[in-house]
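Predict the assembly for these two chains.
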Amino acid sequence: MKRTWLQAIPFALQLVFAACLTIVVFLIAITFGAAETTLSDVYHALFTSVSNEKITMLEEIRIPRAVAAMLVGAALAIAGAIMQGTTKNPLADPGLLGLSAGANLALAISIVLLPSISTFTTVWVCFIGAGISVLLVIGIGSAKRGGFSPLRIVLAGAAITAFLSAITEGIGLHFQITKRVSMWTSGGLIGTTWSQISMITPFIMVGIIVALFYSRSLTLLSLDEEAATGLGQNVTKVKIILFTVVVILAGSSVALVGNMAFIGLMIPHIVRAVVGNDYRYVLPMSIFIGSTFMVLADLLGRIVTAPYETPAAAIVAIMGLPFFLLIVRKGGRKF
Amino acid sequence: MLLARQKRKQRLTMLVLAILLIVTFIVGIGTGSSALGFARLFPTLLGDGSFKESFTLFEVRLPRIIVTLLAGMALALSGSILQSVTRNDLADPGIIGIHSGAGIGVALFYLYVPAQLLSLTFLLPLAAFGGAVITAIIIYIFSYERGVGLQPIRLVLIGVGFSMALSGIMIFIFSAVDPFKVEFITKWMSGNIWGADWPYIWALLPWLLILIPFTLYKSNRLNILTMSEPTAIGLGISLNRERITLMLTAVALAASAVSVAGSVAFIGLMAPHIAKAIVGPRHQLFMPVSLLLGGLLLVIADLLSRLLFQPTSLPAGIMVALIGAPYFVYLLMKKI
């Protein structure tokens, strides 16, 4: 494997740089917006207990939103990296593979059955939905000998997405809850509150920590399963744990912001170009790059069509396409 | 010998399908939420009904069922062409992103072109066609590799990616406009047969009247295109020119259907497959069957969604997806 000049930089330095980048982008994102705020307002909101109207606005609207964007970006990036590693499929992405559609469906059903559902229950419901759709897609993708082919798994994902979202739409229209469902699914980061964040953060944190803990096993899996077995890995156990992590991360992202395709696809590819193929480096880096990217996408969504807002999902989908095309064209050979 | 037998089988299938279609048609115009039962159907049809009855029949039910039928036919034919040209069993205008392209065309047209209602009706298929053609060209370019030719599998993958990105663009377009218009387009995107009125039928019909005979005329070319590329070239086919004309035809068919019937996926996938399973892969034989099947499937889906979910009535596209997606998965497991 040829090392590019980017990969020649020591990993610690890269990580510090990425962390700085995240902080800078975070500050930019909370400084800019419809209401005029200055850096000193941001400073007061973050570090002091001084308060005025603008500072309260920052504390209650912009900062939770940016924090949510960071969480979701990190969660989806990690989920994407794990999926790409375990399925050895450069095109794996929680959104493309129907996880979000499953979580949406579960959400719609739960709104019908339990109208006064709390955020906490919603998270669990989303997990169940995401879990079921992962089982479906992986099941279809690996039903035939030869296992996961990138093509089969993406197409199975597309079909499952179509199927599950048809049911979701049907339920939405029939019970006239389309608006409530779509507030979740396409509302994105608009109106994220601290209570939602505090509900979901533990899940995402646990998911990320478990993922980091298993990053060495993930590297082995991504290379060769037989070699991994030979080196003393319990492949099945590791796979089950990693998929559970994916379900938790993707499910909690959907619970927080709704559908978000392509981000789990893009970030690991960008990261690999910088740190190489070892998941011990890929996963930590994905956290920073994923959250930076998501905060940027949300910022763009707020700026480009002001005074209206474009959901970050739309921005991500548009930016993700070139990546997708590039990866498809390369046929995943460099993976 | 074999051909004669297949031809007989095809005639029989066509006959059965035609009968089924007529039955569904009658059931379709005889049922609905307003009071016009089967008993009053024929008198009303012959001009002997009350004002309310003939209004229900001629202005509500009949146009809807005709639009549905025509759209289903167009989608089925479009799928048949795409599957043969790309030599890919999973090609469907909806799955490979052509519907989304047409959707963008319609959305932009609907939002930014101030026009009177009538001119709007006739221009709508054109707007859809514009969006769809641009999408199709981009997808084609990306799935073409110099020296290797068209990559059928890559085409589908790229199409899936495009339809995701285009729905992103759609949200992007929406986010800056009036919520009322957005609701219309969202419904449209989930395959609501909304253009159930005579002007829409007149807007759709010319496309079909030209494109269906043209496609059937091209049957032999399509037969050759499904073989390997060297064979097709050896048989004297100008590969790229034929492909591009036929792809354009498929795109035009899909776009015109989508512009009035909304984004209905999977009809273009299912109809040709079922037809091929019954009468074999010769285009002369299976395309007419696929045409009738497509119309029948969509009419039944629309009817079911009206009957099962009264009084709300779901968009027919949802119904089709519920049947079509499992079918797609089945094909996926079997063929690739």
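The radius of gyration of chain A is 20 Å. The longest helix of chain A spans residues 53-87.
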